[in-house]
Amino acid sequence: MTSAQVDKGHAEQEPARAEAAGEGYQRGLGARQIQMIAIGGAIGTGLFLGAGKAIDRAGPSLILAYAIAGLVIFFIMRSLGELLMYRPVSGSFAEYAREFIGPFFGFVTGWTYWLFWVVTGITEVTAAATYMTYWWDIPQWLSALVFTVILYGANLISVKLFGELEFWFSMVKVTAIIGMILICAGVLTLGFSDAGDTATVANLWNDGGFFPEGIGGTLMTLQIVMFAFLAVELVGVTAGESKDPQTVLPKAINTVPWRIAVFYVGALIMILSVVPWSSFKPGVSPFVAAFEQMGLGVGAAIVNFVVLTAALSSCNSGMYSTGRMLRDLALNGQGPKSFTRLTKNGLPLVGTTFSAALMLVGVWINYQWPGEAFNYVVSFATISGMWAWIMILVSQLRYRARADRGELPQSSFRAPGAPFTSWFALAFIGLVIVMMAVDEDARISLYCAPLWALLLGVSYLVLKARNPENTAFVKR
What is the 3-state secondary structure (H, E, C) of 370-410? Predict the structure, then answer.
C-alpha cells in the first residue's frame, strides 16, 4: 500500500490494512527471527570497538550516557511501534513521513536511509575483510568481494534465509557479551585471573571519580553512544514481511529496555569494575583490553570473531533494507520503476542488486583511495541515521494528534508518555547534533548533510515536474 492508497485504506478494517501492507512481499520472518533482529540491531561494532574511545573520553560516566541514550532509543522505538500497529508497511518511517509530514520528507527519508545503509555496508564489509587478515594473509579486496557476493545471494534466495543469518549473527554477539559479563562477575566474586586482586566495583569511582573528565567529557561522547544504537530501527522495515506483525513487533520493541540494560549498561559496569577506566585506549576494543588485563590472551581472537560477525550482520541488514527502501520509493513514483520488481519469492531483485553493486564500488574506492574524501562520506552515516529517528518521532506526533481528533483509528500499541516522551527524544537528538558540531572529529557529518539535502531537493523538483499528476507528490 502506497501513500496514494492511504485514504482508501483508512476506511477498511484493521486486519485488511495489515494484510494489504505486505505489498507483494512474503511474510517469512517469524517471532524468533524478529526478536533476534531487534536484539542484533542494538549491538554492533559501535559497542565492541567504538566504546574504547568513549571510555577514554568520559570514564565510568559513559555508563550513564548509555543509560540515558538507551531510554531515548526506547521512546523512539515505542513511537515507531505505535505507527507500525497503525499501518505495518515495509517502507516504514519513509511511508509515515510521506503521510504525516509531507511527500518531500518521505522522499528525503527513503533516499537518506538507503544511503545510510549503502555507506554502512561499504564500511562494514571493508572492516570484515580487515578482520580476516587476523587469521589469514589474504587480499582485503578478495574477502570483501566474497562476503558481498555471499550476502547478496542469501538476500535473493528468501527473506527467511536473511532472517536465519541475522538470527545466528545476533546469537554470536549476544553470547559474547553474556560470556564477558559472567567472566567479569567471576573475577569480582571469586578473584581468579590476573585481575582478581585489583578488580572491584570501586573502580567505577576511585580513579578520578565517576565523572573524571567532567560533564563536558560525558556530553562529548553522545555522538559515539548514539552511533552505537544506529540500526535499532531496522525492525520497522521488517513489518511488511513479518508473520503476525500485530503480535511479534510489539514484543520485539518492548525488549529494548532490558537489551540496553544488559548488553550496554551491564557489560560496561562489569568491564569497568574489573579494569580501571584509565587502562582503555581509543581504537582498542574494551573487550580485548579486559581479556588482556585478566591474562586471557585468547580473548583477542574471540573478540575478532565477534566483530567479524557484527560487521557481516550490519552488511546483511544493509542488503535487506536498501532493496525495500528503493522499492517503496519506486512504488510512490519517487524512484525508477524497475525497483518495484519482485522475484517469485517476493524479493526486490533490482533494488538489492543496485545497492550491492554500489557497496562493491565503495569497497574498491576505499581500497584505492582510503583518504579524506571517502571519510567524509562515511561520517555521514550518523547524521543520516538520526534523521530517520527524527522522522519517526515527528510522524508519531502528527499521527497521535490526528488519531486523538478522531480522524484516524487509534493504534493498538500507543507510545507511553507521548507526546512528552517524543518531544524529549527530539530535544536529546538536538543536543547530540550540537555536540557533533562542537566535536572537530564529528563535525564533518554536518558539512555533508546540506550537500545531500541540496541534491535531494533538486531531484525531487525534477521528478515532481515530470510527474505532475502523481498523487505521491501532493500533500493531503
Answer: CCHHHHHHHCHHHHHHHHHHHHHHHHHHHHHHHHHCCCCCC
